[in-house]
Amino acid sequence: MSNENHSDSVGYKQPPKGPQFQASISKQRALIKRLVASAIDGDARSIATLMSFCARAFGDDNDDQQQAPEDREIVQAFARRSTKRRSKTAVTSNSSKE
């Protein structure tokens, strides 16, 4: 056996130099970091997911009580229009199948 001392050798008490100081992170933290990076890049789905997560994590369940009456009316009107639009689309698609 040769007793050559190589600076790049790996073995007992000699960890690889490349990943020696890299921190390991949990899968959850990696997922959130990826989600935030995608949201910053402008990915709409990532932004919506991140906002939903933040609302659930930090939001209050009494959001309806905190809204101004004008805002509540706008949201309700939007919900009614959306419901009508969906029901109209369902009726149209059902009649086209017949």
Provide key terms for this protein:
single chain, 98 residues, elongated
Please give a structural write-up.
This protein is mostly helical and 98 residues long. Among the domains are: 25-59, no CATH class; 62-90. It is 64% helix and 0% strand. The chain contains four helices and no strands. The chain has helices at residues 27-41, 44-58, 63-66, 69-97. Helix 1 (27-41) packs across helix 2 (44-58). The longest helix is centred in the last third of the chain and has 29 residues, at 69-97. The protein is elongated. The termini are far apart. The mean pLDDT is 79.
Query: Any idea what the shape is?
Result: elongated
Query: Segments where pLDDT lies below 50 for 5+ residues?
Result: none
Q: Please give the radius of gyration in angstroms.
A: 28 Å
Distance between the termini: 85 Å
Q: Given the helix and strand composition, which structural class is it?
A: mainly alpha
Classify the beta-strand content into a percent band.
Answer: under 5%
Enumerate how many helices there are, as a single number. Answer: 4
Q: How many E strands?
A: 0
What's the overall average pLDDT, rounded?
79
Order of helices and strands: HHHH
